[in-house]
Design a protein that fits this description.
By secondary structure, the protein is α+β, with helices and mostly antiparallel strands. The protein has 2 domains: 138 residues; 244 residues, BirA Bifunctional Protein, domain 2. It has 12 helices and 9 strands. A 7-stranded mixed sheet has the order 1-4-5-9-8-7-6, sandwiched between helices. A two-stranded antiparallel ribbon has the order 2-3. It is elongated and about 120 Å long. The relative contact order is 0.10. Bound molecules: 3,4-dihydroxyphenylalanine (DAH).
Length: 389
């Protein structure tokens, strides 16, 4: 509701203008006389003033100002009016003035009560807002280069119909090693320098806890939960007891991939990873597969991509070989299916086959963004991170 001016009163009479002065220290005009019509007119003018200022009560602050302005014990207008009109009035006029004075006071209190019921206690105080102040700026965050790469890799496989899985970072010896065909004491265990949880000597080896050294344990966990066919990628954090240098860090990230169905062949593996590498590094990138060894795949291969930096002309990144080794892969070893089969009989290696792969996300992020030191990914240094905003 907009405040409107009170009715204009006749010249020389209070109030004199359409712009009402409502400051508490405004002078109170003397009464023109003590007849009832004169008193009525004088009080009507004040009542109009009350109505006028009551119209613009919006906030708790306005209400308090209004209360002080009218009912303030020392400078409130009611007090000033009483001083100016009542005290000096002849005794027979006092009653007439007093009655009108009480009516006026009741009107002011009514307006205050009405305001109390319509103004929420937490309404904003107009004076408390300076709309010329600049707003609070929150610095915009940016996706961490590692997470960006993680998402990019996952999205590529999602487009090929892969779902996305997770698994625990604190893992048992069974899932991290034994069920992946690393028997106790097998030398292949030594290739993954493992951080183990202390004080578990009393447990059987298979139940002892460690920080997973790779995402491969989620292969078995997934197969235990879901019968074939299966196409899944599992991104996640892994740990190894490696000393930090420019390319090693005790924490890093991998994406595991697993595809199981009838008649899955090495050609499917090659086609899938060739497509993924082209999607990740550009369509001119070539792939080649080198014989390798992992206990849980047979045959196993390392995948190299043609150097995306020099187009195979030879550069420091590819050590002038034209190729960069990026991931491990292979056909799922029947021994691994035998472990899965303990819970899911459908993983019968005579009936199904599959491939698996594992790649380092940090490594891919470092290549894509030209990051020379893996430690930067974990430093939390804003000068580094801001460059990805
Ligand atoms: N888990 C292996 C590692 O961390 C990487 C790997 C190799 C995963 C071959 C696989 C695979 O799934 O088939 O070194």
């Amino acid at each position: 509701m907009r405040a409107t001016h009170p009715p204009l009163l006749s010249a020389n009479r209070y109030p004199l203008t359409a712009t009402i002065k409502i400051m508490p220290d405004d002078a109170i005009p003397p009464l023109s006389g003590y007849s009832e019509p004169e008193l009525d007119r004088a009080f009507a003018a004040v009542a109009a003033e009350v109505e006028f200022s009551a119209q613009s009560l919006r906030t708790p602050g306005d209400k308090e100002d209004f209360r002080l302005q009218w009912l303030g014990r020392k400078q409130g207008r009611l007090k000033l009016i009483s001083d100016a009109w009542l005290k000096s009035a002849p005794p027979d006029a006092k009653k007439l003035i007093g009655q009108r004075f009480n009516t006026l006071k009741a009107r002011i209190e009514q307006r205050l009560d009405a305001a109390a019921s319509t103004i929420p206690a937490d309404a904003l105080d107009a004076q408390a807002i300076d709309i010329t102040l600049p707003g609070a700026r929150r610095p915009l965050g940016a996706e961490h280069p590692l997470i960006r790469t993680w998402n990019e890799i996952v999205a590529i496989f999602a487009r090929m119909g892969y779902s996305v899985g997770v698994g625990p970072e604190v893992e048992t010896d069974y899932y991290n090693f034994e069920s992946l065909n690393f028997p106790p004491g097998h030398p292949a265990r030594d290739t993954q320098d493992t951080l183990v949880v202390a004080g578990q000597e009393r447990k059987p080896l298979r139940d002892r806890l460690l920080l997973r050294t790779h995402t491969s344990p989620v292969q078995i966990r997934t197969m235990e939960q879901q019968p074939p066919p299966l196409r899944i990628v599992i991104p996640g954090k892994v740990h190894r007891n490696d000393a930090a240098d420019a390319t090693h860090y005790p924490i890093f990230h991998q994406v595991e991939g697993l595809c199981v169905d009838t008649n899955i062949t090495f050609a499917d593996l090659k086609g899938t990873l060739d497509f993924a590498m082209k999607a990740l590094f550009g369509s001119s990138v070539k792939t080649r597969f080198f014989p390798s060894f992992f206990p849980f795949t047979e045959p196993s291969a390392d995948v190299q991509i043609s150097c995306p930096f020099c187009g195979q002309a030879g550069c420091r990144k590819c050590k002038f070989s034209g190729w960069i080794e990026l991931l491990g892969c292979g056909m799922v070893d029947p021994a691994v299916f035998e472990f899965a089969r303990l819970r899911q009989p459908a993983y019968d290696p005579k009936k199904i086959s599959g491939f698996a792969f594992g790649m380092g996300i940090d490594r891919v992020a470092m290549m894509k963004y030209g990051i020379g030191d893996i430690g930067l990914l974990y430093s939390g240094d804003l000068r580094f991170l801001e460059q990805f905003a």
